[in-house]
Specification:
Length: about 400
């Protein structure tokens, strides 16, 4: 997915030039045989940068590729992501006969209270292992579960540190042993009304064999998801008390994170509406929503301000980030409106003038559009003690 990138000036260095040259070759290739030639060399060059912790080279090449026409950027991003989540550098032992892959199983959550990011007890890990093996992974795979449910800000930042985690979890998968995460080494989690939690899984599959259950003749994705929601959900739900939860399909790391980012947009609107209706004790039909685009150099996101009938004060807001090229092709305000209607909100105003990307100077919360077309700080009326933080996100 093509993401916005800030342009840089000046040269980008030899290794980044080489990545760009190889990605351009792949983008312009005429057949699978030529594809393979470029892809193998591009992959090897990416692995050199990953092995040297050279995040700058990868980003410099991506920045340049973003300005190119055709599929140069997508091909380069694919090569970087696939080598990051699927490390090959296991030189000896049984590792050289296996493919390794880092998976993520996202959980969408919302709560009027705290959404935990926490360690997972041994009994839960043992049960999750059984369900993953039975419903999500192919026969003959081995796995390692991280014994922690991560918040988004606790995930490794950047390709090189993600590659590092994928490598240690891949090695743990070759031993079929779980991976211990020290909570002391993780950053503290910011609290939001709705947020995502991630279960991370390292998988080792013999080369040439299937990785996922749905690659086998009698498996499919729909069954895998249904079983995971039921069985995996059953294991994790007791560890997230007071939270409404939705379980996404466990997939390769980057794909799962993107799917979770996308699914969390409508999810957070529905969560906010349910939250407002219960906290303010008003029927959903009394809520009004104001939707507006917010601009930096280009359009960055939509923000939705909620008010209660007869009062123009914004009581709560939701950000709908734009995630990439696919958002260019669709009617985003129309999609937001459809989600609001599905949740029972019928009083919807869509503003089309450009709001600047502004935040509260004190607490950093985004400002939201009001029915009068102003930007406002969301303020909940008369909040009970001990509920949720004053500034909602
Ligand atoms: Zn504030």
């Amino acid at each position: 997915m093509k993401r916005a990138r800030t342009k840089r000036r000046g040269g980008i260095g030899r290794p980044a030039e080489e990545l760009l040259w190889l990605a351009t070759g792949l983008a312009e290739s005429c057949c699978r045989v030529e594809d393979r030639y470029w892809d193998e060399r591009l992959g090897a060059a990416v692995e050199v940068s990953l092995a040297h912790d050279d995040e700058d080279t990868l980003n410099a090449a991506l920045d340049q590729a973003f300005t190119r026409t055709g599929s140069v950027y997508d091909d380069l991003a694919d090569a970087i992501e696939s080598r990051t989540e699927s490390p090959t550098a296991v030189p000896t032992g049984s590792g050289k006969n296996h493919n390794l892959l880092l998976l993520a199983a996202p959980v969408l959550a919302w709560s009027r209270f705290r959404i935990p990011a926490r360690s997972l007890p041994a009994a839960t890990l043992a049960n999750l292992r059984v369900h993953l093996q039975a419903h999500v992974l192919a026969r003959n795979t081995q796995l390692a579960l991280a014994d922690y449910l991560f918040s988004p800000d606790q995930l490794p930042q950047g390709y090189c540190s993600t590659h590092g985690l994928a490598s240690v979890m891949g090695r743990a998968a070759l031993d079929n042993s779980d991976f211990h995460v020290d909570p002391e080494e993780l950053v503290e989690t910011a609290q939001f009304l709705s947020d995502t939690r991630y279960l991370l899984v390292g998988v080792a599959a013999p080369k040439g064999s299937a990785i996922f259950r749905w690659q086998e003749n009698d498996g499919n994705r729909a069954d895998a998801l249904a079983q995971w929601r039921g069985q995996g959900g059953g294991c994790l739900t007791p560890l997230l008390p007071g939270c409404a939860l939705e379980f996404c399909l466990p997939e390769s790391y980057f794909s799962a994170c993107r799917a979770a980012d996308k699914a969390s947009r409508p999810y957070s609107i529905c969560a906010s509406i349910a939250f407002l209706a219960t906290s303010l004790e008003v029927p959903v039909s009394n809520l009004r929503a104001v939707v507006a685009p917010f601009w930096g150099e280009q359009i960055e996101e939509y923000r939705i301000g909620f008010t209660v009938t007869d009062n123009n004060n914004v009581v709560h807001g939701v950000v709908w980030p734009l995630l990439g090229a696919e958002d260019d092709a669709i009617d985003v305000p129309g999609e937001i409106e459809a989600v609001l209607r599905e949740c029972g909100v019928t009083a919807i105003r869509i503003l089309d003038h450009r709001f600047p990307l502004e935040y509260c100077d004190d607490c950093g919360a985004p400002l939201y559009p009001s029915p009068e077309g102003e930007m406002e700080h969301a303020e909940m009326p008369e909040l009970e003690e001990g509920q949720i933080p004053r500034h909602l996100h």
